[in-house]
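Fold it.
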Amino acid sequence: MATLPNPLPDPAASGLDLPPGSLVDATLDGPWHEPLLWYADGPAAPRDWADLRAAGRRLGLLPVLVTGGHRDQWPEDWDLCPDHTSYPGDHDAEEVLAGYWADNVEYVDEETGDAVAADGTDAADDDTDTWPGLAPVPAREAAEDADTVAAGLAGVIAADADDSLGGARIALVPARRSADIPAAIGWSGPMNHENDVARLCAVLRSWEDRYDARVVVLGFDTMIVSVGRPPATIEEARALAAEHYAFCPDNIDQAPPHDLDAYAEKAVLNQEAWSFWWD
């Protein structure tokens, strides 16, 4: 994969004026050979995402908000694993999701050896437990540019000091597209679900293409994605909810009412932000 030179070691030389902040090269295996990201020392202002998107894009840098979460874990404590991360473009989104779906919707009964669906029925007799395929592109056109929607979400998060994400800080990552940001830093947030985050980034690329999605926030094990073209019908939302379950089973398995249709209506239908958390 051809990569752009990393301007983070000396942003001023590239004409980038940044507030006080820190370069992060700490990984699970020791210091990386170059900075993986820069992030500010203090909370983001509402305009930071939009301003750094415009300034950094020409240099191959993309913005993302980072949060320490309730445990106050900032990027240097995220157990980043760039050495174990492949390239998102080497993976097919549908193949990735179909594999996750099979792993999480079905399990093998140790006594009988039969495939059993998540609801306890025989998976072979239940068509609903078969991977349904990728959801179609929403019929409704996007009302705004994808980056405008992302900037708006970032601004709301930065402005709301009382929100659980209050104190989120602006960061810059060497990446060509928003979907690749987790892979570019070797993010290990979904480690209990997937060891190679580039496979999840392949799905994020597909969501970029179909839903105008952008990665706006990363935490230790959390992600928030803006959505410029969300599903506008319950049928579209249910189709996409299946992808969300494959992508992040904990969103449904560990959040009442543990029902995919209810999740589709509440968390997907007409929603311009999707939140994910991996246990």
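The two ends are 32 Å apart (CA to CA).
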